[in-house]
């Protein structure tokens, strides 16, 4: 079982501020790193699937970077809005099975945007 | 719209009873997964299936069973052998191992 860790566990940010949080994962036998956003009473929604060291992906005000050599990924939110309030999950699959043997999830970062 | 449907949304079970949670997808995805969420923990993998009539145990399969008779359907049975079944259960699917997962909206099971 992989060890995927996220920090911080929770975060309160003022509306309009930018923020970031971290996901760490084993750097050996890396296959992919997933980020999901999970809003209350909704289904988790895929944000990014990252596979290449040094990769940076962007979706609107949200972006993510990946460092597979040291085993971490950062998620950045620029100019936080109330609708960004959610739990952000990162996850990684085992290298076996072509990444389809299921994901190991971190415990999530619970982000609250304060007006 | 394509997606994953989980039913019911809330389920109450008496101790000693088996109960089956439904998961249906119309995305034509090959692989399907069941996860469990408990307070303060990450999502944990119960069972998964990459193809019809085949499935594998995940990290916490004890006390659960599944079937995959059709591509669209992956029901999860919580048996009386599951010692602590009260939890939130999520079903997911993907087309390939490089894709993001699509999740259902979950079933909250409570043992009374």
List the keywords.
heterodimer, A: 115 residues, mainly beta, 6-stranded mixed beta sheet, 5-stranded antiparallel beta sheet, 0% helix, B: 112 residues, 7-stranded mixed beta sheet, 4-stranded antiparallel beta sheet, 11 strands, globular
Mean pLDDT of chain B: 94
The number of helices of chain B is 0
Major β-sheet of chain B, in short? Answer: 7 strands, mixed
What is the number of helical segments of chain A per DSSP (H or I, 4+ residues)? Answer: 0
- Say what oligomer this is: heterodimer
Elements of chain A, N to C (H/E): EEEEEEEEEEE
First CA to last CA of chain B: what distance? 36 Å
Biggest interface, which chains? A-B, 30 and 28 residues
Radius of gyration of chain B: 13 Å
Unreliable segments of chain B (pLDDT under 50, ≥5 consecutive)?
none
Please state the structural category of chain A.
mainly beta
- Low-confidence spans of chain A: none
Helix content of chain A: under 10%
**Gross geometry of chain A:** globular
Q: What overall geometry of chain B do the principal axes of the alpha carbons give?
A: globular
Q: What's the average pLDDT of chain A? A: 94
Beta-strand content estimate of chain B? over 45%
The strand count of chain B comes to: 11
Ends of chain A: how far apart?
Answer: 40 Å
Helix content bin of chain B: under 10%
Q: Main beta sheet of chain A, described?
A: 6 strands, mixed
Q: How would you characterize the overall build of this protein?
A:
The complex is a heterodimer of chains A (115) and B (112). Chain A is mainly β and 115 residues long. The model of chain A has no long low-confidence stretch (mean pLDDT 94). Chain A is 0% helix and 51% strand. Chain A has no helices and 11 strands. Chain B has strands spanning 4-7, 10-13, 19-25, 31-37, 44-51, 54-57, 64-66, 76-78, 87-94, 102-103, 107-111. Chains A and B meet through β5, β9 and β10 of A and β4, β5 and β10 of B.
């Amino acid at each position: 079982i992989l060890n995927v860790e996220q920090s911080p566990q929770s975060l309160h940010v003022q509306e309009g501020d930018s923020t970031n949080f971290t996901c760490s994962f084993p750097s050996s036998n890396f296959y992919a790193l997933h980020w999901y956003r999970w809003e209350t009473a909704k289904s988790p929604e895929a944000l990014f699937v990252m596979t290449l060291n040094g990769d940076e992906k962007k979706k609107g005000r949200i972006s993510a970077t990946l460092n597979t050599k040291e085993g971490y990924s950062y998620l950045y939110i620029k100019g936080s809005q109330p609708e960004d309030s959610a739990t952000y999950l990162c996850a990684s699959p085992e290298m076996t099975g072509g990444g389809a043997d299921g994901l190991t999830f971190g415990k999530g970062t619970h982000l609250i945007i304060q007006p | 719209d394509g997606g994953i449907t989980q039913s019911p949304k809330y389920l109450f079970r008496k101790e000693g009873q088996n109960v089956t949670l439904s998961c249906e997808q119309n995305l034509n995805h090959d692989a399907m997964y069941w996860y469990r969420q408990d307070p303060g923990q990450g999502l944990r993998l119960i069972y998964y299936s990459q193809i019809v009539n085949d499935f594998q145990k995940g990290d916490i399969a004890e006390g659960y069973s599944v079937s995959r008779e059709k591509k669209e359907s992956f029901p999860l049975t919580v048996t009386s052998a599951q010692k602590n079944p009260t939890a939130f259960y999520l079903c997911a699917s993907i087309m390939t191992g490089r894709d993001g997962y699509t999740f259902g909206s979950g079933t909250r099971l409570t043992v009374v």
